[in-house]
Backbone:
């Protein structure tokens, strides 16, 4: 392995890690990440073949809402290092290892997404002081951690014998991996609690419950949005107390509306 | 939150701010917002998700529109609130919010709750558009197409995926952000004080409604303790878990109870971080003791 190879592997692993959270340029998708790692070892064709196969496995891995999919970034990078690198595993074994790697990557990203809370709290303080530079630096700091959480294990895999890597993969107890995944499934309520706590007034709580009850109907979110729009429209146009409040607070438009309604009677 | 309190003051402002003195975002600001929004998920966190990312994206607008330091800080604070949507559909929200901020900076009566209401009202349905289109359709289709070339050993698979995806993504981002901004400006320009108030209050209503929809849908909790096991006529065992029971009483009840617990703890001034670590510990403990299972398990 040349120095250039090592540097390139770490850079591509870093990019894949950052992209696993950004989800924009797609450097974390197997067909891209494996090819790049292959390129670092001077064999992009080997990489693209592995990447293509892994891509088909990872087609359905997507982050929806607040749930996190198995981590394609670490799976692609780690498998590609073992296949294209000095370990020289065959494609089949590389693919077999991709799934446990994706779970390990998932745990690591959950950890970084939790650490990010501390960073966002620091950003709160920076906002308080009006320090724009620091706010922006903290924003990218989290992204760098996401890059490192793939780059550092990738560097380890580069130098460790493959047997040790698989042993390490198997040593994480189920209780931790599954427990964290379960926690990751409902940890989002804290965010919902904060926003409802902020927005909620006596006037607004009922709408939350309307949404909650309607949620079980088999409508997608676009249809739900349409219902929500109608509810809001009905509320602001029909609810007479709202009109009274406008009239009471000195506005003219609401009063006119109310007068028009009264004249109709 | 008082939506109406600033009414009298702002009505005067509407008269005094002439068109010549109006603060306006430049094309450069909009391009800057467009590029920055690429990094909207960089600081994704379990507490408020894309909040800091949204602030990072909208920052050029804040810098342009609010010259006084207190206004700037107030604007930054309001964008540190919870926010989460599909990372590509955040561009139209950016456009709309940029137009709202512009109107507010020119004396429009749009308060914090209204801006957050618009963000939340848009984020749910837009995530509902983005997830099936981008993650559910475009990526699998383009990915499978690229993979078919790649497995044959062709680097074209790699190039088609990387370039194709990014061209589509960036064009979509610019177009939808512009659409959001132009439409947002139209709405704020064409509406008098009273109508704008209705709109902003309506946005809060829509926001709360969408939160209600999202809580049971995006919260995965599976209380797997077995309440009873019955044997069907054909001999198969039917297991009823605590989750099944609670959901049959009221759909989404486990998620709702958890939400209320969190709201209650927040009102007791418990640090959100402690709640988050508590929830993770609960997840691990629950799996270990067997009363929690993976979603769908």
Residues:
């Amino acid at each position: 392995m040349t120095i250039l190879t090592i540097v390139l592997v770490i850079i591509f692993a870093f990019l894949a890690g950052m992209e696993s959270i950004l989800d924009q340029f797609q450097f974390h998708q197997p067909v891209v990440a494996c090819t790049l790692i292959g390129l670092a070892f001077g064999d992009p064709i080997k990489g693209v073949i592995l990447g293509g196969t892994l891509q088909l496995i990872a087609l359905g891995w997507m982050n929806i809402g607040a749930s996190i999919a198995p981590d394609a970034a670490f799976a692609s990078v780690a498998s590609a290092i073992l296949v294209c690198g000095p370990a020289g595993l065959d494609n089949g074994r590389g693919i077999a290892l991709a799934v446990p790697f994706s779970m390990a990557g998932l745990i690591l990203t959950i950890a970084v997404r939790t650490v990010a809370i501390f960073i966002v709290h620091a950003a709160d303080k920076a906002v308080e002081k009006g320090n724009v530079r620091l706010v922006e630096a903290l924003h990218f700091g989290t992204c760098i951690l996401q890059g490192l959480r793939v780059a550092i294990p990738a560097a380890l895999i580069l130098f460790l014998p493959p047997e040790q890597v698989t042993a390490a993969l198997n040593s994480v107890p189920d209780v931790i991996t599954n427990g964290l995944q379960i926690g990751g499934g409902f940890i989002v309520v804290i965010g919902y609690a904060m926003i409802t706590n902020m927005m909620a007034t006596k006037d607004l709580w009922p709408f939350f419950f309307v949404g909650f009850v309607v949620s079980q109907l088999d409508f997608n979110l676009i249809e739900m949005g349409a219902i929500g729009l109608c509810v809001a429209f009905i509320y602001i146009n029909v609810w007479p107390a709202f009109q009274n409040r406008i009239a009471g607070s000195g506005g003219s438009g609401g009063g006119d509306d109310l007068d028009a309604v009264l004249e109709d009677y | 939150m008082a939506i109406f309190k600033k009414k009298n003051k702002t009505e005067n402002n509407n008269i005094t701010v002439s068109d010549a003195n109006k603060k306006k975002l430049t094309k450069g600001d909009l391009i800057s917002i467009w590029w920055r929004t690429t990094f909207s998920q960089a600081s994704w966190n379990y507490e408020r998700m894309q909040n800091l990312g949204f602030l990072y994206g909208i920052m050029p607008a804040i810098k342009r529109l609010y010259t006084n330091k207190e206004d700037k800080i107030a604007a930054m604070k309001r964008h540190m609130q919870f926010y989460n949507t599909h990372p590509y559909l955040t561009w139209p929200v950016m456009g709309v919010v940029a137009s709202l901020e512009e109107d507010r900076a020119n004396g429009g009566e749009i308060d914090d709750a209204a801006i957050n209401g618009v963000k939340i009202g848009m984020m749910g349905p837009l995530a509902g558009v983005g997830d099936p289109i981008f993650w559910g359709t475009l990526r699998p289709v383009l990915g499978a197409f690229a993979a078919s070339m790649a497995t044959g050993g062709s680097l074209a698979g790699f190039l088609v995926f990387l370039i194709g995806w990014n061209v589509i993504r960036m064009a979509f981002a610019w177009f939808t952000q512009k659409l959001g901004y132009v439409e947002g400006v139209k709405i704020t320009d064409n509406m008098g004080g009273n109508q704008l108030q209705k709109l902003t209050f309506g946005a809060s209503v829509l926001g709360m409604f969408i939160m209600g929809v999202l809580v049971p849908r995006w919260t995965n909790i599976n209380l797997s303790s077995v309440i009873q096991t019955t044997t069907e006529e054909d001999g198969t065992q039917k297991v009823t878990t605590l989750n099944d029971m609670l959901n049959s009483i009221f759909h989404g009840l486990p998620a709702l109870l958890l939400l209320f617990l969190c709201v209650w703890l927040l009102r007791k001034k418990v640090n959100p971080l402690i709640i988050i670590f508590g929830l993770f510990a609960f997840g691990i403990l629950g799996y270990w003791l067997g009363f929690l299972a993976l979603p769908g398990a």
Chain A touches chain B through 115 residues (CB under 8 Å). The longest helix of chain A spans residues 91-129. Residues 250-265 of chain A have pLDDT under 50 and may be disordered. Chain A is about 80% helix and 0% strand.
